[in-house]
Amino acid sequence: MPDAGKRVWRQTGWGRKIFGLYVAAYLGYLLLPLVILVLYAFNSSEYLIWPIKGFTLRWFAEAFSDSRLLKATGNSIFIGLVTTFFSTFFGMLLAYGLVRFRFRGKRLLETLNILAIITYGVVSAVSVLLWFHALGISGGIWPTIIGHTTFIMPFAVMVIRDRLLNFDMALEEAAMDLGANPLHTFRDVTLPLIMPALLAAALFCFTISFGEFLLAFFLIGNELTLPVYLYGLMRFTFTPAVNAAATMIISLPILAVIIVAIFFRREVRSLY
Amino acid sequence: MPDGMMDSSKTPASDRRGPGPAGSGGMVWLVVFPAAFLLVVFFLIPMFVALRYSVLSTMPFFDPDPSYTFANYIRVLTEPIYLRSFMRTAGYAVTASIISLVISYPVAYYLARRARRGALILLVMLIPFWTSIILRVFSWKIILGSSGIINFLLKTAGLIDLPVQLLYNRTGIIFGLVYTYTPFMILPLYATLGKVPRELLEASEDLGRNKIQTLWRVTLPLTRSGTMSAVILVLLACFGDVLSAQMLGGANTLMISSVIFETFMGGANWNVGSALSVIVFGTLLLLAAVLTWLGREVEHA
Amino acid sequence: MMKKNIGYLWHKIMPAIVIGMAFFSAGMVFASETRELNIWTWGIYCPDFATTSFEAKYGIKVNCTFYHGNEELWAKLHAGHEGVDIIQPSNHMIHRFAKAGLLEPIDTHKIPNYAGLSEGFKKADYNIVNNRQYSVPYTFGIMGLAYRTDIIKEPPTSWGALWDERYKGHVGFSRNPVDAGFATAKYLGMDIAKLDTDIDAKLKTIKAKMRLLNPLLLKRFESLEEMKNLLATGDIWITSADDGMIHKMQLDGQPVEFVVPSEGCAAWIDQFAILADAPHKEAAYLWINHLLSPEMASRMIQKIGYMVVNKDASEALPADLAEIMTYTDAETRRLVPYPTLDPKTSEKMVKAYQDVRGE
Questions:
Q1: Fewer CB within 10 Å: N-end or C-end of chain C?
Q2: pTM of the model
Q3: Is B9 exposed, middle or buried (CB count within 10 Å of its CB: 0-12, 13-18, 19+)?
């Protein structure tokens, strides 16, 4: 498959180089602000002025001793994991139903699915708040999980649906011709085949939930999630203590990616 | 995001088949029930709740038997603050979407053509995602400030005497919006560009066209609806974005999203806030519908 | 024989016993009086150097609990204040607290260092209720102007400098409706102590003036921390500000200057007040006297950047700091103590500011 692409590319070598440079520049643009964020965490001056005056670790000491920061992170991780589980699981079910079957209300579900992604924003978040308010449910961890799952599940549906559409139903039919019932077919044939999509969806869901601000802000009540806590911090703290907290958070995914790259090299390569 | 997202007539053969495996009628509902429940109860119904509150005179908390009224809508449509911030937001959203498109398209194109590296680059792109939108927006405060990196470089290079004001104004917000949403544009663009069959491109090249002509005559028309989907996604997202305005905006950049946010953050009039939300939501839906219709795929290849 | 012995007992030993008991009970009273002291105060008024030196000098343990707002203090007191001796409300709250019967009248003769206070702060209106003094001033913060000395060459002297077209796009202003309202009112020459009367007409004028400021503003800061940073980065060149923050910036070497505008401005004055049912009143007086001593006062000034009312304190400061932090008599005369507003007035000011913000 890669060879077919090569024919189209070989004709213009310099064009390809410029392209590559552009994409590299874009990646730099994406990552640079984070590098700067981390850099500032070590700034000895408390003012957010460039260039950096000196080196200090005192902001990290401040961040580490902040019990609210740690609590918020814990909450975010918990909410992320639960949201991921339900989003991926329910999303898989919905994706399967939408792709393999025809039924009444299918159009409605498809529309709702897409709308949930497109219209996500302050309006959606506020509407969910109003609904919980009308139900007399005050904020907390579980309302946040519900809100997150509702709006993040459609992403999982998209990813899994894409994968489901792209493999041959013949495999499933073959299994069923051989006598397997639909449930066994699903477990032994479909599931393994869509596993990469499930993993990708899960990763995606956790990522989104962990960093999500709007729904969490309105639904978390007296508790905190990391983005909500950071928002409060950033409104009133203008010292690099904020950057130190940010660094602690940024290091988590970078660590995860490094671990994946080193220990799961083969699996990653097999993904494509 | 797959191409077929917006356009149901493009379902592949496997989907156009009749009812699936035996006994599917009721069983399907069992399968999709959890997802359907969530979407209907916690996405659809809240919209109607907002609608109801928007026509009430006060929140039930204060008065268990409020009366129905259009006063909230009248306020939203007549007080200048609302219209002005709405138009301002529209301006920011359009600008940010266009800039995002220009930046994202080449990246998506590159990724689509290079299957192997593309996946790795996407993974790298996910790293900022992990760090939460808040941090990503905040980092621009350091870069764009009057004592920030950009001004520092410009000053050192001798290009300016006084710092350029890039923050707490429209510029800052657009920077924030573009930075936040280009990844959201790249993904669907990547998906839709990846679906253009290689054979078509090769055929076009064989016919003697160069790359640019191929792009213009083959790729673009084929990916029209997919591209429009991506644009709609970002355009609508900008209307609902709160963080760029709150952190990078200033005294004269009030966005309608901030107005709604601040209404519900404090104890302000939630009924008026609901009316505002309904109007904004309605406008967004209308916009999405119109743009989808405009971007529908032309069938020639 | 017995009778004579009992008589002897009575006349010799009883007085001894009585005197002994007197000493004992005095000792008990004294001991329970001065063993500890409980203070409810703002986060910055209980530094280690003060508590350690106090404990060393008098053997009294100091316990501090913090609050972050006057209304918060009011609420806390009503929720229960068993054992609390000292509170530190701002000047405009004293009348309310005193009328509610919460405060003990202060005998300034028990505070030797009271003599060292700047004249303008002794016996002020806000301290006196029904001819009795209920609090002693401690620190004050002025809500005036601040600007970048390296960017703005001619020092501004009036509130009007905020409305100067030359600074367009680089002006900061408070997001607090009452503070913003006071600043504008002062610029318009109004008496902020009498804002309650005829408030609607006054607000109309204030709003019109504020609207003129809108196109010049860069940002309305939510906190003084934010103001400090905006000024430090140079995003804003001139802004409304609290003097304490600016003094701290100057100590950090930032090119900023604080200005008491010619039209005058509001100043809050944090007080010492002793609760009517305080268990350790003597210790409370000792603490107040301790903190008002020139040495403690000057150390506090250096720590928090806000001025202490003791006029000798500024003399005890290192020369460069003294220069930054002392105010001339002319300047202090332009200060108006932060007035108490009718809640309705505050509400109207909040709404007015919201309207202005939106346009």
A1: N
A2: 0.82
A3: exposed
